[in-house]
Design brief:
The chain is of the alpha/beta class and 417 residues long. The chain is 33% helix and 21% strand.
């Protein structure tokens, strides 16, 4: 038997994970076969260990972490450090990023792959990545991330959102580019502040929902607009979702407005979102944060994503989804053990459900997408920044490996700042 802390070879297929603490606190042996969980049995230290078994010694075993919102094409990981350029408005930031694209020293595909490797090493098994589709990049970023998806298909599930960061109505030709992106392999269509950026909510949402219905795709929209301007758009999105029969296939990312309106407006909007089956993604931003527990009480599915990871939008981000659960917990006051379980759910079960993942979990028949962490319970895993001991994707070992400590470090030339 190999210990979970021993070196593993990429692609190894353990037959069993022994002495694992499950999310519900049980000590169990998880038997694996053909990339799936064959059975989950109470741990018996007297039971002979099968060949290929890995003893976890009381470490916590979680289903693979899920990053519900990232930007693989934007990251600067794998490139030399670039000082952050401060901006004051969304439009200024978009223009600054557009200018920086042409100065990038490392291609999109290489940077996206560097981030994907880090995600895998930290136990993320699935990610939804928004990818810029605009007149400046055309479909170049999409094709780069599609190539990364193929490269990592045995290590990381990648969903792609065609993201119109330059607007849908405001930028000529974007609707046609989005149409082409969905035809070329994007899984969902995105949007950006129908009122605050495009200044034409009906025009943007008509296009987005129309293309989603035509291609049979889901929707994931960025919405930063605050106050009742934002909540009115959320209710509009909910009504369109219900009318199109897209319940369970529409998400709104950020939804800052939900953290900045009074109780009556929040309740009214949450009721509409829950009835329509519209999910909300939060990354625990520096601004208003949707009240995750209050939304859950209304039946709204809330899930988490990392959003930007060391890019021109901000210099922070590690790709660690347990750390993201910590951040959201701190921002929203989640302190008790049940609340810390809820925080963990934002990056596991809730995110998996929002992404429509099938066979997710730790039960007979589920996919063996699993991560063992150096913690004795779910609350400890959220609070303690534990290291990863073993990462499996479809039953194969994909991490961590000896070179995972700093998998994206790019040394700068001597004298560089």
């Amino acid at each position: 038997m190999q210990k979970a802390t021993a070196p593993f070879d990429p692609g190894e297929r353990p037959t069993a994970l022994l002495g694992a603490v499950l999310p519900d606190g049980r000590l169990a042996d998880v038997l694996l076969d053909a990339g799936r969980v064959r059975s989950v049995e109470d741990h018996d230290p007297r039971r002979p260990a099968p060949d290929g078994a890995v003893p976890l010694g009381g470490a916590l075993l979680l289903p693979a972490l899920v990053d519900g919102h990232a930007h693989l094409d934007k990251t600067l990981l794998g490139a030399p450090w670039r000082p952050h350029l401060a901006t004051t408005t969304l439009r200024e930031q978009i223009e600054a990023e557009r200018a920086s694209r042409h100065a990038a020293a490392v291609p999109v595909r290489d940077r996206a792959a560097a981030l994907a490797r880090r995600m895998v090493s930290l136990g993320t098994g699935h990610v939804r990545s928004h990818v810029d589709v605009d007149p400046d990049t055309g479909l170049d970023h999409l094709h780069a991330v599609l190539a990364v998806r193929e490269e990592f298909r045995d290590r990381l599930g990648i969903q792609i959102v065609a993201f119109p960061q330059s607007g849908v109505v405001a930028a000529p030709g974007v609707a046609a580019l989005l149409d082409a992106a969905l035809a070329d392999g994007a899984d969902l269509i995105g949007g950006l502040d129908p009122v605050g950026f495009d200044g034409d909510a009906a025009g943007q949402l008509d296009t987005v929902f129309g293309l989603a219905e035509r291609h049979g795709k889901g929707i994931d929209l960025h919405l930063h607009d605050g106050g009742e301007t934002g909540t009115a758009q959320l209710r509009d999105i909910a009504a369109r979702t219900a009318a199109a029969g897209l319940g369970g296939r529409v998400a709104v990312s950020h939804a800052y407005a939900l953290g900045a309106v009074d109780d009556a407006e929040l309740d009214r909007t949450a009721t509409a979102l829950a009835a329509a089956g519209v999910a909300i993604m939060t990354n625990g931003p520096s601004g208003p944060v949707p009240p995750v527990l209050r939304l859950a009480e209304h039946g709204v599915r809330v899930f988490a994503g990392s959003d930007n990871i060391r890019d021109t939008w901000w210099p922070y981000g590690t790709a660690d989804m347990l750390e993201r659960a910590t951040i959201i917990g701190l921002r929203t006051g989640l302190m008790t053990d049940p609340e810390l379980h809820h925080a963990a759910g934002l990056v596991t079960a809730a995110a998996a459900a929002a992404l429509g993942l099938e066979g997710y979990g730790i039960a007979p028949g589920t996919r063996a997408d699993l991560v063992a962490v150096a913690a004795g319970s779910v609350p400890e895993a959220v609070a303690a920044h534990p290291r990863r001991l073993l990462v499996l994707h479809a039953g194969r070992v994909v991490g961590p490996f000896a070179d995972d400590a700093y998998p994206t470090f790019a040394p700068q030339p001597r004298g560089a700042r």
